[in-house]
Specification:
CATH architecture of the largest domain: Alpha Horseshoe
Strand content: under 5%
Largest sheet: none
Low-confidence stretches: 1-10, 16-25, 253-257
Distance between the termini: 67 Å
CATH superfamily of the largest domain: Tetratricopeptide repeat domain
Number of strands: 0
Helix content: over 70%
CATH topology of the largest domain: Serine Threonine Protein Phosphatase 5, Tetratricopeptide repeat
Length: about 280
């Protein structure tokens, strides 16, 4: 649960940085030049959620019909681990502006990752696709929700669309590779993981997926190299366990010969003792 909250906070901060600091309110908005708005967004990006929340609430008293304020209040509430209040704020933003892509995207994320309502997340992401049919990320987000629902073929179709729009989309390649792996289509999975790693060598998900694809192809040395790289980045017990398991598979014949040698030695010693007895 803590990991989910940390991820949610990271998403909120990413939205804040992308749409808040860089793409503030339109210059025609009445609060665009309000210094409190700029400071509140900076506070949120720096992790000062309580200060940011108080500032957004104060601004809303003066500008109650601004969707961006409601959205950023929702982000601050997420940082403060209050998902119910966050959803209310985000929905108010959508009520003010039904075409607010960022608000719908964040709502879809909260529905999927925090509230666990896959169908609600899919609805929001589909709305975003309709609003922004040229945005690869919209299709990728939809695919993640479809995958969680178990609609793997639909998820692949969404990812194919994302990659048609943005061929160099490493995240979409990693997600599609993971789906191929679930379907035991290891050749396709390996292709996607390798392509994703060429675009982003630091993609741990793609590197772990590649290790599994290499294992299935019986390239045990390659699989262990991939896992060793992951272990060097993060000493995750799962990586160690998988590395050891592949090592056992890789050197099983050595272990078998060693066991046979010990067994033969034991029999020889027993026979020798009996002969000298």
């Amino acid at each position: 649960m803590l990991r989910t909250w940390l991820t949610a906070c990271a998403v909120a901060v990413a939205l804040c940085l992308e749409f808040g600091v860089c793409l503030a309110a339109e210059s025609t908005s009445p609060f665009a030049s309000d210094k409190r708005w700029e400071q509140a967004r900076k506070d949120l990006a720096q992790g000062k959620a309580s200060e940011a929340k108080a500032a957004f609430e104060e601004l809303l008293k003066q500008y109650p019909s601004e969707a961006d304020l409601q959205l950023f209040l929702g982000m601050a509430l997420l940082r403060l681990r209050d998902p119910q209040a966050a959803v209310l704020a985000i929905k108010k933003a959508i009520g003010i502006d039904p075409n607010h892509v960022e608000a719908r995207t964040l709502l879809g994320y909260v529905e999927l990752e925090i509230r666990g309502d896959v169908n609600a997340a899919i609805r929001e992401y589909q709305n975003v696709v309709e609003l922004k049919p040229d945005r690869a990320e919209a299709y990728s987000n939809l695919a993640v929700a479809q995958k969680k629902k178990g609609d793997l073929e639909q998820a692949i179709a969404s990812l194919n669309k994302a990659l048609d729009i943005k061929p160099g989309f490493a995240g979409a390649l990693t997600t599609r590779g993971g789906i191929f792996a679930e379907q035991y289509k290891w050749t396709e999975a390996r292709r996607d993981f390798e392509a994703a790693l060429k675009l982003n060598p630091n993609d741990d998900g793609a590197l772990y997926g590649l290790s599994q694809a290499l294992r299935e192809a019986r390239d045990y040395a390659g699989a262990q190299r991939a896992l060793s790289e992951l272990i060097a980045r993060s000493p995750n017990f799962v990586y160690w366990l998988e590395w050891g398991r592949i090592g056992l598979i890789r050197y099983w014949w050595v272990l078998l010969l060693t066991a046979i040698a010990f067994a033969l030695k034991g029999r020889f010693m027993k026979a020798r003792t009996e002969a000298n007895g």
